[in-house]
# Entry
Amino acid sequence: MKKNPIALAIAALAFVGWMIFLGFEARQKSNPVVVSRAQLLVSQFEVEVDLEAEPKEPQPAEVTVRDVLYSAEEPKPKGVIAVTNLNRTQGYVGPGAYLLPLVRHGNQFEVAGYPPDPGLPAFHEPPKPRIYPLTSNVRQQYQQIRSP
# Structure
């Protein structure tokens, strides 16, 4: 039985095309941002702010609140607020709008951390709190978490 070289070439091209497509899709979907339900559980406020540059200074960063998405107590944060631990967070990807889950300490705020996990031993150093770039995907996840 003679094998058809044209059929083999078509199958090889289809295979290579499929591998290229899968590689492209994997690259597009890598490192998705996942909003932490546990972090939102411990936050008292969730606000939308604009960050121009990655905060690196150890002193409290001043940010302007664009919108309060959730408030567990009054008074709601408004205007310019001081966030004490913004330089010790993860999730900054560049200038733009961000979702910050916050807790209040006196007249200052800090990005909420994660609650202790009863199934895991205590960390020597707790994980860094996360801030979320306000993309359509993050908005959709947030609305699913906070919807009644």
